[in-house]
Design brief:
CATH superfamily of the largest domain: Glutaredoxin
Low-confidence stretches: 4-26
Number of helices: 8
Shape: elongated
Number of domains: 2
Amino acid sequence: MKIKRIGAALAAVTALMAVPGSSARAQDKPTPVTGKLPAKAECVVCSAGGEAHGLEKPAAGMQYKGETYYFCNKGEIAEFVKAPESFMPPTLPRPAPAFALKNTSGKEKTLAGLKGQVALIDFWATWCAPCVKAMPDLQKLHDRFAGKGFTVVGVAIDEDGMKSVAPFLAKRKFTYPILLDTENVWQSYGVRAVPALFLVDKSGRIVRQWTGKVDKKEVERAVAELVG
């Protein structure tokens, strides 16, 4: 599920890009595709948001740093233009952004405190049905590898925090730590949609990540490889 979607017309996007600069520098800014579009392509915005729906007829395209990206509707272009780098394939491995968040009981957990462990950080929300559906599987994964220096860490992004998360957890039996994202940590991790999973190795690097519908077997294999 998308956290936020920005809609705008193609004409507005063209106006945004009408800034002084040489043609050589223009390639560093998204530029509308003016030629014929391919019969089928994958939407870069939907893919980045965990809503990939395969190949389909694109509504528009943009060129950026030598590559061409397509969109299933023109309203997605403004979102891409605003932050094109956020739609690029993630750099892996990379340092995991630090955090210090509390659970519903007020106990704090930090990324630094996870050093030496393998961690699967799950950004989720009570209103996200796929997130809730995945949590029992995350609990099983936590139980399976907890004895090998592994932990799942849930990070709830609900805007009203404790008000929604506390009663939700009270009705369920999850033993892995679940924290309240009161500091918008999801932004530093570049989360565009939930669920969003980040696999962090023992040295604190993100080595794998998944968004949207996730293949639990793939996640299990990735965790098993790290914990040995």
